[in-house]
Amino acid sequence: MLRDIESWGVREVAERSLAGLLHAELQAGQDISVTDLRDPEIAALGLDRTAAASSPQEHYPCTRTVARAIHASPQKPAGILGHSRQAEMTGHGPVEVMVLFAKRLRDARNGLTLIPSIRSSGALGEGIGRIWPDELLERLEIGVPSEGS
Asked: What is the per-residue pLDDT across 10-63, written as a single tens digit (0 to 9) for each?
């Protein structure tokens, strides 16, 4: 949903794109080893951020190739830690994001629990589950026009 929004043009997602999606704030019940692709680590490798973490939409197949290589590495990381491209495009500075490989977590998804909060999970398109994504989209200056507008 958000990966397709570019820095130029209209920054919005269609209301219908939220249908059927959920969000959850999770807490790991174990230490997690992740590959660090935050800006300082990428720079220390002598790479440009766009090579691994901040490429435009047409280059997502390349970033998926990087993720597959990390997943296949002998260190067997449980995920990737990086900085948000959307936050970068709106001048919010480095905001950390994480992608987890569920099968790498001990007991897979049972190794994660919901953070105990009324806002910790829900459908993106309705009720309490809409509050957190709406706040996030507002901070990222991304509009969600209603279907009739």
From this structure: 677 777 777 777 778 888 877 888 999 898 888 898 877 766 666 566 666 777
7 shares a domain with 37: no
Quote the tokens at residue 105.
Answer: 């977590």
Looking at the fold, whether 86 and 41 belong to one and the same domain comes out as yes
Model confidence, pTM: 0.67
- CA-CA distance, 92 to 138, in Å (whole number)? 12
**E runs forming strands in 1-149:** 22-24, 26-28, 34-37, 79-83, 96-100, 112-114, 121-123
Name residue 28's amino acid: A
Residues 92 and 66 in one domain: yes
Instruction: Let me know: does 81 contact 88? Beta carbons within 8 Å.
Output: no
How many residues would you count in the chain? 149
In the structure encoding, which two tokens stand for residue 52, read together?
Answer: 């691994």
Domain total for the chain? 2
